[in-house]
Amino acid sequence: DESSASAMRFIGALLLVASASATQLQHLRGGQSKEKVAIIGSGNWGSAIAKIIGRNVLSKDGFDDEVRMWVFEEQVDGRNLTEIINSEHENVKYLKGIKFTENVVADPDLTNACQGATMLVFVLPHQFLGRICPKMTGMAPGCRAISLIKGIEFSDEGPILISNMIKEAMSGMDVSVLMGANVANEVARDEFCESTVGFKEASNGAAFQEMLDCATFRVGKIGDVAGVELCGALKNVVALGAGFCDGLGLGGNTKAAIIRIGLKETAKFAKMFFDGILDETFMESCGLADLVTTCYGGRNRKCAEAFAQKKGTWDAIEADLLDGQKLQGTITAKDVMVVLKAKGLVDEFPLFSRIHAIAFEGAPTESIIDLEHATPTPLPPTPIHTSSRRLTPGLPAGRAGDPSGVRATLGAPLDLVFRPAWLPYPPSARLRASPTPTRPHAYSPHARTHTHTFVSPKSPPRRAPARPARAEG
User: Fold this and answer.
1) What pLDDT does residue 12 have?
2) How far is CA 357 from CA 122, 311, 345, 425, in A?
3) Is-catalytic flag, 34?
């Protein structure tokens, strides 16, 4: 009858939609029916994320069960490290006491580990990229990558993102990034935390979020690769300053000031050298949260504390405290200073400059609090439209008080977003919260944020309705 025919047509339409969706997913995976993940690196952080990914793929549709992890072969107690991992399901050198699921397979052959992969996870010191990328062949067509590498390179022109280095070395492969408040040992112990995927291609950002997100490792995403990545790199420099404070026995107030100034300088640096940086990036896990946890824990803070206590040179401290791991903050601090000096911007970044002076120029550690220029004069207000991401305020480059043109390049929004709470807004403008919802939180479809809009001081102020008189008696 007609009702049966309608039902059959409806079912047919659903099957057609499902088939089209499956075909699209298969196209994104380079023709493979399931995502196949390969992890490039097996240190402390690499092993922690391997535990998360290995467990996740077993419980999520669309992923191949096996996860290959490339391991640089080492000898541990007379045995190959890969043999130990594959038999005991534990990286006894870099993540002792934490067990992998059995589907995580250690492979000392880099080319073999990548065979058929649709998703690559880079998690190793960036100094090795030039050596390993040429050996990475045999991936599925359309393979994409995500970088968990917290570092940065520099040229005479400015900073070079690690994600861009990978992209160029891998023949234009799309590269997302993952950064967040993720101390590896805590992640491995399933202590709740968050992280942030920065993506360029939305479909790839969603795929990596699906691969990584779980109940104890909540992953958000934002379309700002450069902002997310720079947060992950520059927070290690700020952590050196926090470690100096700890070594001097200074209190929480001082460290809080270092964190605030460090976040402001990180945002300023990012906006100075890259377009499309989003203000909200710095309030994600990759920004404020990662900075806080790194300044209270982590290897950079620990080594800086020892340096402040005069326990040796950086190389000696690294060898003594890190058990084979590398110290990233000192390398990044050097590279940042090269760029700032080349561009004549040293005075615009008092904290970064002071940290470098203490670490490498013989400045006394006590001078970490000598930051009289850390809160620069506010910029003249500029009307902000909620759709704008990069603005040019009224202060022209090269004007007295801004010889380098930094403030004119940076734009007013950052100064307003990170203005200290105790500093009043200019009388010529008021900041009003608009209830217009913007991007919801990536893993909570119900969350809402608010934009901020400047309104003219001539606009009539909103008045609260008069309260009814209280009854007597």
Assistant:
1) 66
2) 32, 18, 15, 33
3) no
Which runs of consecutive H residues, i.e. helices, occur in 61-182? 81-88, 110-113, 129-132, 162-169
Residue 452, SS3 per DSSP: strand
Provide the token pair at 147.
């970088």
Q: Which of helix, strand or coil describes residue 40?
A: strand
* pTM confidence score: 0.73
pLDDT (0 to 100) of residue 73: 95
Pairing relationship of beta strands 430-437 and 175-179 according to DSSP bridges: unpaired
Rg (CA), the chain: 25
Counting as low any pLDDT under 50, the low residues of the chain are 21-25, 27-29, 376-462, 464, 470-473
Which residues are CB-contacts of 18 (< 8 A; sequence separation ≥ 6)? none
Gap between the Cα atoms of 414 and 30, Å rounded: 41
DSSP string, 192-229: -EEEEEE-SSHHHHHHHHHHH-BTTEEEEEES-HHHHH
* Kind plus residue range of the DSSP H or E element containing 300: helix 299-308
User: Per the residue annotation, which of 235, 255, 268, 302 is the catalytic one?
Assistant: 235
Question: How far apart (Å, rounded) are the C-alpha atoms in residues 191 and 196?
Answer: 17
- Per residue in 67-120, pLDDT (tens digit) is 999 999 999 999 999 999 999 999 999 999 999 999 999 999 999 999 999 999
Contact of 223 with 444, CB cutoff 8 Å = no
Element (H, E) at 179: strand 175-179
What is the C-alpha to C-alpha distance for residues 433 and 386, in angstroms, rounded to an integer?
11
Q: Where are the beta strands (DSSP E) in 28-157?
A: 35-40, 63-70, 75-76, 79-80, 104-107, 119-122, 144-147, 153-155
- Considering only CA atoms, which of 96, 98, 103, 106 is closest in space to residue 74? 106
